């Protein structure tokens, strides 16, 4: 690996390795997103699917298949499948509930699109389903059906746990498994399955994806309080304003005295937020060192992800997956 | 068939024949609807799934399997599958768009449930997907994946065609195939597929379900203008108030002179509806005999459904399916 590569981020290195496959994935996505009867579909999805995201999930599938010695093109189908499922969940996440309107955040345009978001998401999910059927692997279908159920269950759980100070770290973990890790682990596992990799390897690929997904989401939640807006594109405090019980807040609530608890009840449970509350919330997290503790949790999951790689063959992609895990957590280091 | 049976409606006769199977379907639905992590899920779905609807779609699957000589319990899994898909689409249809709010129809409670409706619908869809994977039949998965895509595409098409006077009878037919017929035809076809019925029979079962579904939806749209509210539970004119381009209106628009066209533009395209407009709309449909023409179309589809049954074996269930087709259209005769 030359000097030039040292400065290249892990996902960019992977994108370079899988350049041809990713081009095929993008072409397949464009082909299957099209609808003869309903031109609105590509309109709604274009900004999501074509925006040239990092294609992290599809790359995980391509990497797992490559590492497992796969030869064929089902990896491309499955990479497109996981991207469609991801995009469908994004669309469904966009659906606005009353609380969002009550806080005056939703625009008329957003609302008008509620129904489009739902139905186009359903369309993408159906397209994903068709793509996986084309692989002819019942095991792949089983994995992705189970992942889909975990995703949906996690989303509902997040909805019911929202604004509830009784939310525990266990519940948070279940939510995170649903909203992020289930698709990561399915993406890596199916890559091994289509390559007919030994059971110990498909299990290792699952474990890697699971731990990476959890670490990734914890970091994301941490960045909401600690991130550099310019670098991450996220606004500091969005989760606080949306009254989401993420790990740094759950830990702060657990450590709260009576006065602090009243603060969390007012701001998170009742949603009565005033100027200076975000600063106060962050000050409480610093006082109880919950941001550091959350970062330690993320690091532990990333370590688990890397440990999971041990049973996998010695292969350049294995190192890329390890580097990717480090990179995920480096965002907040 | 005894005298007592003569008074029994076809779907009740089928429910009697499939009593044991339907009990198993209901038990399976209750079992798979449950969520260890998210108790809101059964809460949201209970009123839909347990309300004891006619279970028309599950019965079509049971009937098709029985008629094809199927022995086993995959018919029960697939019957629950189609009911879950049906319920998921109902939940997603419930999502409110801005226009509904603008007209002041949506209550706060309805809105609060937007997000629940979406996510619980996704959960049911995933559960359906798991159930069909359990049948181990890639052909069944292919049929239901294609049906799901047709359903989603039809829903998006309906959204974009809404309030558009340029909507043709062809577009209406595509929408109806998506919103109703795709699941009917998949329900009957998979019943034949799991029984390993000859190709000509699975094709006949598909054709029957397709034509029955189209006839069923046309009758439903007709009842919106011609029904007896007490008998159907539908309010006359709901579709008109929601500015839906259903067949009786499409035919009336096609026959409209300049003054009538202005009326449709004002009431449907602009949504400016006043007292007496519904009566005027119905008067125009009578003037152009579009309700009669719509009924004739429904009768033609029902005749096609019955004709499709010809290649199927001589079996008591075949007559029940023919009677069911007649019953569907008898609702408006």
UniProtKB/TrEMBL annotation, chains A, B:
UniProt keyword annotations, A-Z: Magnesium, Metal-binding, Transferase
Q: Which family does it belong to?
A: Belongs to the FPP/GGPP synthase family.
Q: Which PROSITE patterns match?
A: POLYPRENYL_SYNTHASE_1, POLYPRENYL_SYNTHASE_2
What's the cofactor? Mg(2+)
Q: Which Gene3D superfamilies match?
A: Farnesyl Diphosphate Synthase (1.10.600.10)
Answer whether the UniProt record assigns the keyword Protein transport to this protein.
no
Q: What is this protein called?
A: Polyprenyl synthetase family protein
Top-level taxon: Bacteria
Q: InterPro entries per the record?
A: Isoprenoid_synthase_dom_sf, Polyprenyl_synt, Polyprenyl_synt_CS
Q: Name one Pfam family in it.
A: polyprenyl_synt
